[in-house]
Amino acid sequence: MDKFIALLFLSRDQAHKFHLLSKSYAEHEALEDFYIELVELVDAMAETYQGKHGVLKDIPRMSNESKPTALETFKSHTKWVEDNRYKLCDKNDAMLQSMVDPILALYYRAIYKLENLK
Predict the structure, then answer these.
(1) What is the 3-state composition of the chain as percent helix, strand, coil, each rounded to the nearest 5?
(2) pTM over cut 0.70
(3) Residue 66 above 70 pLDDT?
């Protein structure tokens, strides 16, 4: 779970960076929506996990993967989440697994906006 939280923090930071550097209003707004919404989803998931399993020992700092765009960053991070979601918590832990879905939905909404709204 600690790497998952760290990846989401990295996504948030990258989205904020790309948001500030964007020259497109649609991209600027899509990224702002993403990083604002992500904070609440991550906080809820981390607190729920810790309430059930105890406080995390650490949240590692992940380094930037050097993706040149927010879209590439989000696609990469989405793939990681999908590939690892059942390693984060037990497949049968419906409560925590259900909290991953809104996070993935947020990524996919952002990907849609970045690909299609100019």
Answers:
(1) 75, 0, 25
(2) yes
(3) no
